[in-house]
Write a structure and sequence with these properties.
The structure is a single chain. The protein has about 450 residues and is mainly alpha-helical. It is built from 18 helices and seven strands. It starts with a helix and ends in a 22-residue tail after the last helix.
Amino acid sequence: MFYLYLEWNHLITKGNIQRKHAIDGPADWLNRILIPSLMMIYFSLCTFNQLIGANISCLKFTKFEKEFAEQYCWTQGIYTHLNAYNMPSQTPYPGIAPCVAIKKNGKITYPCNEAEMYKNKVFHSWYQWVPFYYIAVAVAYYIPYLVLKTTKLRRIKPLINLLKDENIIDQHPKMVVKKVSTWLYNEVVYPRYATTSRLAKFWGDYCLVFGVTAVKFLYFIIAVGHLLLTARMFKIGNWITYGLMFGMPTTGSTTHIKDVLFPKVVACRIEKWAATGKEYETGMCTLALNVMYQYLFLVMWYLNVTLIFLNAFGWIYTMFKFMNPSITHKWIVNSSMMQTTADFTRMFGYIGPSGRVVVSKLSENMSGYMLAMVSSKVVKKIDSLQKRKKSKPPLEFYRINGAPPEVPRQPLMESATLAFGMVPQCMPNMPRPRSSTMS
């Protein structure tokens, strides 16, 4: 709840909800902000109605007081008869019959048989847990963002906050370029060349790729799980097609889907021990909250289905982009309208797959001119580093900049590197030349 307050406070006061937390995209914002916020509104509405309003209203009970009967039915559960649906012209309320409705030869009979009654009862107990259901959904959709914050990508937030400050960029552009280029060199470039272990180098190159891809996939899994688990919450009716069937007219022999999933009139059976033995009485109750629930859940269904397709596309697009670094390169150049691309192309080939994730995120928050200046400074530092270490460029450098006359032999671990395209130094003990200038 506190995180949501900070997000919306930024939106209201700054006019940009992405300003403080810019490490994810607009599609992720729908998952981590819109859905949890909507669920918290739903939770407040349901809790408010349950606290000040009548949750249930029962009648026809003569052996028990009205207040006791309503409390009993609310806590012990209410039910409908399975055979009393899809007969709107012959039953007064969907799912409600004197005993058990059995259709034979086009007619309905009501045999008061205890075994038949028990077999055809459908209990609806989910309404007691709706507020907790909303809380669980809100938490589930926010978890992937917390996972994303554990990756190296969170360390570029100071840079993004700096790049968002227009006053500093206008007054001290050279200082901003120097800080960004120094950070990229210290955090991305140097650890990649200082690592001697193949395993550490492979993990440094791909840890952020795996992290971002996993978060996208996690959003998709949560959206699908939300739809399927909600369907299991209802004993009858088809929640999967609820939004599609909601607006369709019903015939004289079918019950509307909203009356099946959200019954407004239900039955309740109260039992107790008396001097003469076990006594029971059956009556009818109304659930006025289900009138509100049917529309709240309808909005949630549309958002849920939309997020399933949106997250699936985002996951596939993210994998495709990482597997084709040249496409990411063209997208950054075109979107930032960069005029001079020589140094940026060289830097893009040097920084590795995880480094490209960082550069892609930085390019969304800075101009093409400034990105070209940063690239120029980073390339100079890379050239100086290679002269000291007498090392050759990484193999993916040639994939973007073109192969030299003689392509160097490709190590086993480097061959896997070319399959994707993401920030080194996910390993905690990776060496650095000096502390970063960014705090």
